[in-house]
Amino acid sequence: PRCRRLQLKDMIPTEMQRLTKYPLLLQSIGQNTEEPTEREKVELAAECCREILHHVNQAVRDMEDLLRLKDYQRRLDLSHLRQSSDPMLSEFKNLDITKKKLVHEGPLTWRVTKDKAVEVHVLLLDDLLLLLQRQDERLLLKSHSRTLTPTPDGKTMLRPVLRLTSAMTREVATDHKAFYVLFTWDQEAQIYELVAQTVSERKNTREPLLSSSENGNGGRETSPADARTERILSDLLPFCRPGPEGQLAATALRKVLSLKQLLFPAEEDNGAGPPRDGDGVPGGGPLSPA
């Protein structure tokens, strides 16, 4: 009789369901309590219940995310990273994503070149962006090459694992479902074009990415050189679609960052300002006008 003919599986969720109803019950009691002191206590109890409920919901979400990451980790194929000689990928050859926080995930199309598009499942973690390719049950992390100049060594490798601390995002003016992700290093810049199936999906992917990259750069003030570089990147973006029309812009990005290293070495080392009039380029002579 005490079980009311309920099975164990029916009784386990009872405490959880009751927890969600406490704030509503206390709110109703507070609305019908006339004595101010007593009403204040009831309202405080209701607020505490809401905080407990929020904590429980967040713990459930975190556990669900962890279980998903464990499943992805089990299916993750790192063989391409381990065989790669790219020094930027060496730290990811034993990548363990279960130690990360899952921020967002979903399917996107990665436009590698004008004629090559790859379907990927994007994992946005707290400090990394992963571009996963599905192959049966496996999830591959595989780099792709893109030709910048018509020479034997004129190719650049687009990596499938990227740190958010060096990331920026920009919209694609000619495609409302697409957006650019720019990653910059000391002497290199790479542009990724990612396409969602709908405009809303693009927004749902780009906004968490933008927020994560900003948090990754939080606390670091943008130097004048970095600000100039970002303005140049923004100006070049309309010309950076994969294909021949984007080759010049991609090459220019690399030259801009290399020139920044030559002109502002002291600024990056100790925060000094830009060169004064009369300062020379490394090796001696004064700067001559272009």
TrEMBL record:
Give the protein's recorded name.
ARHGEF1 isoform 16
Cellular component aspect of the GO annotation: cytoplasm
Any single GO molecular-function term of the entry would be: guanyl-nucleotide exchange factor activity
Give yes or no: UniProt keyword Phosphoprotein.
Answer: yes
Q: Enumerate the SUPFAM superfamilies for this protein.
A: DBL homology domain (DH-domain) (SSF48065), PH domain-like (SSF50729)
Q: Which UniProt keywords apply?
A: Cytoplasm, Guanine-nucleotide releasing factor, Phosphoprotein
Show the InterPro entries listed in the entry. Answer: DBL_dom_sf, DH_dom, PH-like_dom_sf, PH_16
Renumbered residue ranges of the record's region Disordered: 203-227, 265-290
In what residue span(s) does the DH domain sit? 1-59
Pfam entry (one): PH_16
Q: Where is this protein found?
A: Cytoplasm
Zinc as a keyword of this entry, yes or no, is no
Q: What is its main location?
A: cytoplasm
Q: Where is the composition biased (Gly residues)?
A: 280-290
